[in-house]
């Protein structure tokens, strides 16, 4: 239970220390900032325990010296049913997490094991990463393993039971982020139902590869990508002079928060860097000259990641840059790559009718708010195109790789997909 307490207290505490924000956003910011700062500290060989102590002390001081208005919001009549629908599976998942250990092989072998290695050695480039464990995914980014190492270190227990709350926490925080941001951008009811849809999707809730009951990092990546996406859409709203709700924290400029989300993406998974670059390009049209800060933050995170990778042996990860010149020799893979996502979108046991609804909603959403819908469609299309390109260039058996990764890659673009459904639903309600 110590792991549960650390998860629910430490990360929101750090998130709230940098500005007023909702509980979900605070958790995600706290997890991202904690992992990022510990990574940078480890890179320059500052003891991780000392770095964590400084982070916690600064967070406490910041909160104690900052006045805050209490959050007095309550569910409105048109969101209470959606709230109940959202809460029901989360209660069930909490019960399952309490009594069921992590059982997915890849998550435990490639992510939890890293957290244990960091917690034991208190370093990000110790013997664990220098060949002592023969980790086949040695170059995977380690933001989430660092968060896990904090939980294991504070609890003084390397048992998986301490860390599994982190993955459920990401789903809960992600749902709350979706509820708050879509609720502000479209309508409270749209936000509430979007969050309910998210937690009821089998791929997020119960799927053994990528779901909240596993130790994969895809929900975390999807949540960080959602945060960056919502900053883009918020930027569009501000450029039009649209009113924002009382929850908007004017002391936190959108471009700076966008910068943090992008840095988190880079340090969370290998897919995070191309995702951050796509969002950065789109962000250049939204933030214009203010895109400099996000660009600098992304560059610093990428350089830090590459410096860390240069210090430790490589695993068996594919070198995408090396593979790109060979893509023309692998054009037979193109057919598999093009068909990968449409085929997996129609897997009812994992997605239900969700992606069919997204395609229909995209057409309607363009008539409701062309700029917001265009951003959402552009993010989805760009990322799926990049992933399809990787499938084409891969040295793995492409059909096997698609079978085990396509659904998890679809998770990454869930926020813009939910935004399209919310916009379309708003249009239908208006009619």
Task: Describe the protein in words.
- The structure is a single chain.
- With 431 residues, the protein is mostly helical.
- It has a domain at 2-65 and 80-241 and 252-316.
- Helix content is 72%, strand content 0%.
- The chain has 20 helices and no strands.
- The chain has helices spanning 2-16, 23-43, 48-64, 80-99, 105-121, 143-155, 160-185, 188-200, 202-205, 218-239, 254-268, 272-287, 292-311, 320-323, 333-345, 348-351, 354-368, 370-393, 398-411, 414-430.
- The longest helix is centred in the middle third of the chain and has 26 residues, at 160-185.
- It is globular, with a radius of gyration of 21 Å.
Q: Which class best fits the helix and strand makeup?
A: mainly alpha
Number of E-state strands:
0
> Number of helical runs?
20
Mean pLDDT across all residues, rounded?
90
Which stretches are poorly predicted, pLDDT < 50 over at least 5 residues? 242-251
Strand content: under 5%
The main pleated sheet reads as: none
**How large, in whole angstroms, is the Cα Rg?**
21 Å
Termini, distance in Å? 50 Å
SSE pattern = HHHHHHHHHHHHHHHHHHHH
């Amino acid at each position: 239970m110590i792991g549960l307490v650390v998860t629910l207290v430490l990360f929101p505490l750090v998130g709230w220390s940098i500005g007023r924000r909702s509980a979900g956003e605070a958790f995600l910011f706290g997890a991202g900032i904690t992992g990022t700062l510990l990574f940078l500290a480890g890179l320059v060989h500052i003891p991780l325990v000392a770095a964590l102590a400084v982070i916690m002390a600064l967070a406490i001081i910041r909160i104690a010296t900052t006045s805050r208005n209490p959050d007095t919001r309550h569910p409105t009549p048109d969101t209470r049913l959606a709230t109940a629908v959202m809460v029901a599976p989360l209660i069930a998942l909490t019960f399952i997490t309490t009594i069921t250990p992590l059982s997915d092989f890849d998550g435990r072998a490639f992510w939890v094991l890293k957290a244990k290695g960091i917690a034991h050695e208190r370093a990000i480039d110790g013997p664990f990463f220098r060949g002592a464990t023969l980790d086949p995914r040695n170059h995977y980014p380690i933001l989430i393993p660092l968060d896990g190492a904090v939980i294991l270190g504070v609890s003084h227990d390397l048992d998986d039971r301490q860390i599994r709350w982190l993955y459920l926490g990401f789903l809960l925080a992600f749902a709350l982020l979706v509820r708050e941001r879509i609720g502000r951008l479209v309508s409270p009811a749209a936000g509430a139902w979007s969050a309910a849809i998210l937690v009821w999707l089998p791929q997020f809730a119960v799927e053994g590869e990528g779901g909240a009951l596993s130790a994969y990092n895809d929900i975390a990546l999807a949540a960080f990508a959602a945060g960056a996406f919502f900053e883009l859409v918020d930027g569009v709203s501000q450029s039009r002079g649209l009113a924002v709700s009382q929850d908007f924290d004017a002391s936190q400029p959108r471009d700076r928060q966008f910068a943090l989300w992008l840095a988190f993406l880079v340090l969370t998974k290998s897919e995070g860097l191309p995702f951050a670059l796509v969002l950065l390009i789109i962000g250049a049209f939204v933030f214009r000259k203010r895109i400099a800060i996000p660009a600098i933050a992304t560059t610093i995170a990428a350089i830090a990641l590459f410096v860390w990778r240069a210090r430790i042996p490589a695993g068996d990860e594919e070198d995408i840059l090396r593979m790109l010149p060979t893509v023309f020799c692998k054009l037979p893979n193109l057919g598999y790559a093009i068909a990968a996502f449409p085929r997996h979108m129609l897997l009812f046991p994992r997605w239900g009718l969700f992606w069919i609804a997204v395609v229909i909603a995209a057409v309607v959403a363009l008539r409701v708010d062309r700029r917001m819908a265009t951003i959402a469609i552009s993010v989805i299309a760009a990322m799926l195109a990049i992933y399809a390109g990787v499938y084409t260039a891969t040295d793995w058996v492409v059909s096997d790789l698609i079978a085990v990764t396509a659904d998890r890659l679809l998770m990454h673009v869930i926020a813009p997909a939910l935004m399209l459904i919310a916009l379309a639903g708003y249009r239908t309600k208006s009619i």
